[in-house]
Amino acid sequence: MFKYGQDIGIDLGTATVIAYVKGKGIVLREPSVVAVDNNTGEVLAVGKEARRMLGRTPGNIVATRPLRDGVISSYSVTEKMLKYFINRVCGKFIFAPRIMICIPSKVTEVEKKAVIDAASQAGAKKVYLIEEPIAAAIGAGIDISRPCGNMVVDIGGGTTDIAVISLGGSVVSSSLKVAGDKFDESIVKYIKKKYNVIIGERTAEDLKINIGCVYPKIQDMEMDIRGRDLATGLPKTITVHSSEMLEALIDPAMMVVDAVHSVLEKTPPELSADISDRGIYMTGGGCLIDGLDKLLQEKTGINVMIAQDAISCVALGTGKALDNLDVLDAKKRR
After folding, report:
1. CB 191 within 8 A of CB 230
2. What would the pLDDT profile of 209-239 be if each residue is shown by its tens digit?
3. Do 134 and 165 touch, CB atoms closer than 8 A?
4. To pair with 160 at 20 to 30 A between CA atoms, which of 62, 93, 257, 310?
5. DSSP one-letter code for 66
6. CA 293 to chain centre
7. Where in the sequence is the domain holding 152, given as residue range(s)?
8. Count of CB atoms within 10 A of residue 91's CB?
């Protein structure tokens, strides 16, 4: 009899790591940020504590996000981060856990191996991978085993994954590196160009969450932010309106819409008819930008729905997929 510890599902996101434990549900939700002392290589903080340090550290401490565009950009830091989170979830485990991790739909074999190696080094007994759109579809409550087409658009921090799913697998899929982070970057560039003021990533994210939109709002909203004036080098407060956010965010939003369009063009006609009937499901934190569902619906002519608890869909789907680990192991042993 094979002995394993807990079964854990991890949504290893560019912006957030969410962990799901079989039988307990979601037990951890932390920003994927790590603060490391460059002189000693020691990890000083992980998650929320490290996120507070972003852009505020002295020279010897670096607060970084070890995942960029949905894939590992710093292997050693990712390994340390995973180790920290696994220890927090499991406590003092006797048996090593089996872990299922989400990956974007179009990653290379090298990128897959990096995820498996990092999780194994962090203490996993066995590592399984699941594609993000499939996990998102399961988490959104879609029965993916039936022979009918479902379209899922999962917009995370680093990547947007689009897939048409039927009979438990993706028929047509696409992954593009335009998501939450790109929206933030567009805001930073826009404020710099229009006001000659530099703002940080966190300020840009606050703007996106509070007054960001990609479809004209009925009522124009405003928000005061502080940044550094490039002309004087001094701090400066400016008032930004949601109509300006629309200007800043429409380009990356249209890239997502175009990618959905190109996936629909490649979809077999029978499945296209199903999607037209059933609509498009949107998941992930990035889909919560005001008006993105309306924009997509207007441009495709297909009904667009935002999944319930969109941010947790991928982690919940990974958690539900943990129920099939014994089947996967039995197949391998056979």
Report:
1. no
2. 999 999 998 888 999 999 999 999 999 999 9
3. yes
4. 62
5. S
6. 17
7. 143-306
8. 7
Task: Give the domain CATH number at 265.
Answer: 3.30.420.40
Phi then psi for residue 131, to 5 deg, are -70, 140
Q: Is 156 helix (H, G, I), strand (E, B) or coil?
A: coil
From CA 227, how far away is CA 218, in angstroms rounded? 28
pLDDT digits (tens, 9 = 90+) for 279-330: 999 999 999 999 999 999 999 999 999 999 899 999 999 988 888 776 656 5
As a whole number of angstroms, the distance between CA 221 and CA 188 comes to: 18
- Whether residues 301 and 318 share a domain: the answer is no
Which is nearest to 152 in space by CA: 19, 22, 271, 250? 271
| Residue 234 CB neighbours (<10 A) | 7
Q: What is the pTM of this model?
A: 0.89
**14 and 158 in contact (C-beta within 8 Å)?**
yes
21: its two tokens: 């434990």
Tracing tokens 């933030």 back to the chain, one arrives at: 184
d(CA 273, CA 322): 32
> pLDDT (tens digit, 9 = 90+) per residue, 240-289?
999 999 999 999 999 999 999 999 999 999 999 999 999 999 999 999 99
For residue 43, pLDDT over 80 is answered with: yes
Number of structural domains (the chain) is: 2
Instruction: Say whether both 70 and 216 belong to one domain.
Output: no
**Integer angstrom CA distances of residue 206 from 180, 185, 201, 214, 260:** 12, 12, 9, 16, 27
Task: Provide the Cα torsion 62, 65, 71, 75; round to 10°.
Answer: 30
**Cα separation, 150 vs 22, whole angstroms:** 26
**C-alpha–C-alpha distance, residues 277 and 299, integer Å:** 16
Task: DSSP for 111-136, please give it.
Answer: HHHHHHHHHHHTT-SEEEEEEHHHHH
**By CB neighbour count within 10 A (0-12 exposed, 13-18 middle, 19+ buried), where does 270 fall?**
exposed
